[in-house]
Amino acid sequence: MASVTYDHVVKRYTADVTVVKDFNVEIQDKEFMVLVGPSGCGKSTALRMLAGLEGITEGEIRIGERKINDVAAKDRDIAMVFQSYALYPHMSVYDNMAFPLQMRHMPKAEIDTRVKNASRILGLDDFLQRKPRALSGGQRQRVALGRAIVRDPQVFLLDEPLSNLDAKLRGQTRIELQKLHRDLETTFIYVTHDQVEAMTMGDRIALMYDGVLQQVGTPSEIYDHPANLFVAGFIGSPSMNFVPVTTSNGTAKGSTFEVKLPKPIGEKKGTLGFRPEALTDRAVEGGSTLEMKVDVVERLGSDQYLYGQVGGDQVTARVDPRMKVASGDEVRLGLDIRSIHVFDAETDKALL
Amino acid sequence: MNWGSFLTTQLPTLVVVIVGVPAVIVGYIVAGEFLVRRLPDAARPSVRPWLWVGPALFFVAAFLVVPAILTAKASLETSKGDFTGLTNYARQLGDFPSGGAWIAIRNNVYWLVLYTLFVLAFGLILAVLFDRVRYESLVKSLIFMPMAISSVALGVIWKFMYWYQPPGQIQTGTVNAILTGLLRTDPRIWIQDPKVNNFAIIGAAVWGITGFAMVILSAALKGIPADLLEAARVDGAGELTVFRRVIFPLMMPTVVVVGTTLVIFALKAFDVVYVMTGGNYDTDVLANRMYKLLYFSGNTGGAAAVAMILLAAVIPVLIFNLRQFRAVEARR
Amino acid sequence: MSIAVADRPGTAATAARFSPRWISDRLSKVVLHVAVIGLTAAWIVPTAGILVTSFRPFSKISTSGWWTALAPSFSFTVDNYSKVLGSSNLGQSFFNSFMISIPGTIIPIAIAAFAAYAFSWMKFWGRDWIFLGIVGVLAIPLQLSFVPVLSFFVAHGITSANLSWAPFLPVWLAHTGYGLPFSIYLLANFFRALPSDLFESAEIDGAGTLTVFFRIVLPLSVPALASLVIFQFLWIWNDLLVALIYVGGAPEVAPLTVTLANLTNSLGQGYHLLTAAAFFSMIIPLIVFLSLQRYFVRGILAGSVKG
After folding, report:
1. A103 CA: distance to closest CA in chain C (Å)
2. What is the pTM assigned to this prediction?
3. Average pLDDT, chain B
C-alpha cells in the first residue's frame, strides 16, 4: 500500500512538444484519485509515466518513498487496466489472469488460489475457460480488472476503463468499481475524460488541461470553487453560464443587468459565471433578477432547462418543472448570488 | 529408388534436419537474449534490435544486395575478370533488332504488356462474375488451383494442350482439336511457329497466375460497402455503369498493387519458357538468356550484363513501389 | 428493401411469374451462371486433360484426344505411373524436394519473424529506412545474384563437405536470402497491426522480450505464419530456377521440378510417361493447397490489400 508523488514531472517529446508541464500531485495511500481532462490534455501520459510505459523527461515520480524513474515497469508493483482491456485473445480467462503471476514465477497452487479468488469477487467463475471473444463487453472489462486484482499491487492504474461500455453498464460498473476500491483498500488512479465519472468516483480529482494541472481537490471543492474559467466550464452539465461583465466595488455590470457581488472586487473586466441551478424561477433573498428571452425549453421530468438569452449572452437556467414556459417567452428569473463566480478576463483565474 | 538406403541414411538425415534446423534458430535467439540480459540496463535497448534483425540483414545482404553489386561489377569484366568497359553491354545490345539480347527484350515486352493486361482483365472479370453466384468459393478455388502447380508441370500441361499433328491427322492436343473440330480451320504449330509461340507461352502463364489476381481483386471488391452500390443503383445507374463509375475506381489501388506485382513477374519470367521451348524458336526471355549464357557459354560477363538490363527494367517499378509504400505508410 | 431498388433490373425477387420482367431477370441469371460455369470449366480443362491422359494407355494417347477417354468403353491404367517411377529417379527426387523445401521454409520464416518483430515493436537507428530498403529488394531479380553467390559457394567448397545434407546447404541458404524480403514484409505488416496495449500490458505483467515473442506475438500470428509457410513451401517445391543453379541436375540431389524438366527434354516421344510424372509432381502441392487453401488465400490478402 502506498502513496504516489509526482514531483515537478515533465514529459517532452521534442523541444517544442511538451505534453505534461511541471506536474505536481501527491496521491495518498488508499485514495481514489481521478485524473480528468479533455482528450490530449496529458492525463494519460501522466498515468503512463507512472506505469513505466513512457520515460520521464524531468522531475521524479515516487511510489511510497521509492523513486521509480528508472525502475522497469514490471518492478514497480503496479497493475493497469487498459481502455481496450488488452486481454490476450488466444488465452482463456483463467490464463489471462494467471499470466502476470506466471511471469513472477509464482507456485501453481498460489496462482490458482489467487485467480479463483479474483474470479469469485468479480463473478467470473463460470467463464474461466472461455476465450475473451466469447465474452460480453462487461465481462471482458471484469477480466481486465481481475488481471489487475490477482497481482495484489500497491497501486491500481485505470485508463478510461469504462469508455467501451454502453451507458447503462457504465453506471453499474462505476458503483462496482467504488465497492472494489473499498474492499481492496488500495490506491486507485483513474484516468477519464468524463466529468461525471470524475465527480461520482473520485475521493479527489486532479483536473488537467493542455499539459498543465489546473486544480486538485475533492469533487465538491472543484464544483463549488473552480480555480479558473476552464475548470468551471469543464465540470458540471449543462455547463456553467459565462457572461462578460465589468466589476467595480461591489457590483458586476453586464450588458443589460447588474449583479451585487458578495465580496467587493476592484475595477476590472471579467467573466461572471453561474451554474444553471443558480438561475431559477424562485426569487432569492438578496439576489438579482435577470430578464431572459427563452429560445428552447428542455423538459426532463425532474427538471426543466431553459436555453435563451440575457442581453446578448447565451444563458441556461434550471427551473421548476411545473413552471409553464414556451419558446419565445420572456421570463424573469432570480440569480442566487451566493453561488456566482467572477473570473479575471486576462488570466481566467477566479477572483471570487 | 532404394528403400533400404532410404530408411537407413536418408530418412534419418531428414529427421536430423527437421529437428536440428529449428533448434539452431531458436537456440540463437534464446542464447542471444541471454547475453543481452547480461548487459547493463542502458545498453540493452540499443543492442537488442540488432540481435533480432541481424540474421535477416545478413542473409538479405549476402544473397541479394552484395551479389547485385558484384554482378554490376562483373558486367564490366570479361569472364576471366579483366575490365572491358561496356563491351558486354555492346554485345548484348548490338545488332538491333535480331542480334544480342534483342529477341529476349522484345519478348519480355510482349510478356510485360500481354501477361499483365490479360491477367488483370481475367482476374477482374472472374472476380466480378463470381461475386454474384452462391457457389463462389468452389469456382474460386478451381481457378486458383493452378497456383499450386509448378511452372514445370504447367509447361508440361500446356505442351500437351498445344500438341500438334499435321492437318488431316487426328489432333490429340486440346487447342488444335478445337481449331479443327469446332472452328474448321487448320491446326497451328503453337510451340515452334515464331508467329504464335510467344503468345501461346504467355497464354499458358496467364492461365497459371490468374487465380492469384482474382483472389486479391475479389477481396477488394468485397471491401466496397454494399450501401455504395445500392445508392448508385437507386440513383438509376445500370450494372455496367455501376461497375465503370463506382466499382472500378474504388478497386483501382488494388489493381495497381496487383499490376506492379505482375509486371515484376513478367520481367522475371523464366520457368515456363525454359520448360516449353528452352528459349528456342524466338521465344527467349532475358532470364533464360542469362541462364544460358552462364551455363552453356560460360560467359559470366555477358550473363551479368543481361542481369543488369533486367535490373534496369525493374528499377522504375521498384521506385513506383517504394513511393506507393511510403504513401501507404504516411496514411497509417 | 425500398421500392426504388425493387424496380431495378437484376433484383429478381419481386417480379410476377412469367411477366416480361421475370423472364428477363431469369434470362440474365441464366447468362451469368452459364458464363461462370463455362469459364471455370475452361479453366480446369488443362489440368483435367493431363490427369485423364496420365491414366490412359500409350497406344490410345497418341491416336485419340484425351476427351474420348471420358466416354465408354473405358480403358484406364496405372502403367504410366509404374513405368516412370521405375525408370526415372522421381522417387529420390520426391525425397530431395522435401530435403530442400522443409529447411528452405523454416529458416527464412523463423528469421523473418525475428526481424519483423524488431521492425514493428522495437526502436533502433535507421529502422524505417532499412525496412524501406527491404521492400525495395523485393523487386530485385534473383538472376542478379546467381553468379557471385555461386562462385562463392564453389570457391569455398561448401557443397563438398562430408555430410549427407551438405549438398543442400547452398540451396537452403539461397532460399533463405530470397524468401526473406517478402516474409519480413508480410509478417511486419501483420505484427504491426497487433494492438499496442497487449505489449504494454505484457510489459507491466513482467514479460520479457522472449516471452512476449513466443507467448503473445507468435500465437496471435498463426494465420499469417501459416499462410506464409504454405506460400514459401509451395514456392520452393515448385521452384526450378534456384534449384537448377544451386543443386543442379545430379539424380541424387535434384528435386522433382528439375527431374521433371530433364524428363521433358529426354522423353520427347515418351509423352505418356511425362504426363504421369507431371501429375506426380503436383500431388504434394495440391494436397497442401486443398487442405490449407483458406489460410493460403487469407495470407495473400494480408500482404496486399490490408486495411
Report:
1. 6
2. 0.82
3. 84
